[in-house]
Amino acid sequence: MPAAAEPVVVETARAKLNLDLFVTGRRPDGWHELDSLVVFAELADRLELRPAPTLSLAIEGPTSPGLPADERNLVLRAARSLQQECAIERGAAIRLEKHLPVAAGIGGGSADAAAALRGLRRLWNLALDDERLRELGSRLGADVPVCLYGKPARMRGIGERLDPVRGLPDLPLVLVNPGRELATKSVFAALDGAFGPADRAPLRAGSGLHRLAVWLAESRNDLEPPARRLEPAIGLVLEALAGLSGCLLARMSGSGATCFGLFGDRGEAETAALLLRKRHPDWWVAPTVAFGDPR
Ligand code: ATP
Fold first, then answer.
1. Is 16 a catalytic residue?
2. Which of 9, 53, 202, 244 could hold 272 in an S-S bridge, CB 3.0 to 4.6 Å?
3. Selected catalytic residue, list 16, 35, 45, 112
């Protein structure tokens, strides 16, 4: 008789997009405070978690080359911290299928850490509420709490203040990375200028894609100027995206170098992505949709 299939938990680690990002202050400990509208895309890494006596991580997928599978990986760091927090002696065999570019401003590492925390809570049957999981996540990285939340949110402070954003439409996007890793730390270090509160008008719920694009055009990503100075290819990406037929807005996400173009529908985004790939075969180009929350 065949052995019963071993239980497997599957989790999705979605790309995080900062539709805008204001740097609003700097704390005495050096951390910057932000105010950012964050959404999550269909495009994602995938984690499979199976019961095992010890912890292990195997990585594959198109963007996996060069990514360490040892204790430097946020997936294993998340797993270890959960083991410690809950005094768990069991392990897990984790397989990470990597699709998101690394050190790219779309929070791949944070999304993987969040997916590992969610997946292991299920696999190990832990009675750990969302708040404790978020607290644990925040120790792994500023973007982990919002990745645990996984829905449109206004993120403030150093990532710990989250407010749901309701009424956003689905957003057809083309994501483009010029193929250069950009460390978040260096972008913040290159930031100059005064900080101040986010000067954006309140977002009216249910305003539709085109009105959202107009509203977004009034805001900005404060990390874009320093990132462009460090990596001039970002300017080329933004120019190429903005020049594509149907592009409503082109902007950098997070600390870069990935930029997104917002399009009127999925078909336009897919056509634009094909054209861009032809023109720039060395760039990473991915059409996707960021999920709104129309309820
Ligand atoms: P953010 O948008 O949150 O600033 P990012 O997209 O710029 O993040 P990540 O892809 O999260 O950057 O990677 C940041 C660093 O984390 C990289 O230097 C990478 O080596 C390390 N890292 C550790 N684990 C992972 C992982 N599972 N996936 C991606 N990067 C990881």
1. yes
2. 244
3. 16
